[in-house]
Amino acid sequence: MPEGPSIVILKEEVQQFTGQKIISVSGNTHIDISRLQDKTILAFKTWGKHFLICFDSFTVKIHMLMFGTYRINERKVSKPRLSLVFENGELNFYTCSVKILEGDINSHYDWSVDVMNENWNPKKAQESIEKMPQKMICDIILDQDIFSGVGNIIKNEVLYRCYVHPESIVEKIPPHIKSQLIAECSTYSFEFLYWKKKFELKKHWEAYTKNICLRCNLPFQKKQTGERKRRSFFCTNCQQLYI
């Protein structure tokens, strides 16, 4: 599943179509695609893992799910879920979820929980975390209502950077460590974006998919953790378990 930084890259790559009229629309989506015909795109936005195509009275929300892809000015052999054709190019989405959000896009999203948005509010994240004291930190970091855009790669890397075991209980983690975790969720997301643009993201992974702890030279544990049962890679020697 693409994480927030990858969707930001998509937004940057399609700016050529801002202000352009859709001259042809097709696809095997269940939405009423006729609504998009001859419509002008006002803006492209992102909220976490959601890619948003904004029109005058509604927005098309695209979620890439686990295996979604897109093509700009080219097509795959398979039929697109949604295809938008302009005078100067086309935009095609595959294996994704497509929905229409009615009215003002600002009524649908809280931009302050998006770790890459200019309105990101770490204090609000802290307040939300404190309301779930018994949760494991691995589940909290993946909660899109708190850390929109953060996925499993970022979760693993942030926990490793902060020396925190993924199964740590929120209320047991010292306040200064929680503050560090919150800050790193945003910081690492922007580093992710920078490295991905340079096509060197995997080179910088220190925990995700790794077998040996770089700090301790000991084997990593690999386990499905939390209620979400997502893969975690961690060192039991240097990542403190707060329980």
TrEMBL record:
<feature type="domain" description="Formamidopyrimidine-DNA glycosylase catalytic">
    <location>
        <begin position="2"/>
        <end position="101"/>
    </location>
</feature>
<dbReference type="Pfam" id="PF06831">
    <property type="entry name" value="H2TH"/>
</dbReference>
<dbReference type="InterPro" id="IPR010979">
    <property type="entry name" value="Ribosomal_uS13-like_H2TH"/>
</dbReference>
<keyword id="KW-0326">Glycosidase</keyword>
<dbReference type="Pfam" id="PF01149">
    <property type="entry name" value="Fapy_DNA_glyco"/>
</dbReference>
<keyword id="KW-0540">Nuclease</keyword>
<keyword id="KW-0234">DNA repair</keyword>
<keyword id="KW-0456">Lyase</keyword>
<dbReference type="GO" id="GO:0004519">
    <property type="term" value="F:endonuclease activity"/>
</dbReference>
<keyword id="KW-0255">Endonuclease</keyword>
<keyword id="KW-0378">Hydrolase</keyword>
<keyword id="KW-0227">DNA damage</keyword>
<dbReference type="InterPro" id="IPR012319">
    <property type="entry name" value="FPG_cat"/>
</dbReference>
<protein>
    <submittedName>
        <fullName>Endonuclease-8</fullName>
    </submittedName>
</protein>
<keyword id="KW-0511">Multifunctional enzyme</keyword>
<keyword id="KW-0238">DNA-binding</keyword>
<dbReference type="InterPro" id="IPR035937">
    <property type="entry name" value="FPG_N"/>
</dbReference>
<dbReference type="InterPro" id="IPR015886">
    <property type="entry name" value="H2TH_FPG"/>
</dbReference>
<comment type="similarity">
    <text>Belongs to the FPG family.</text>
</comment>
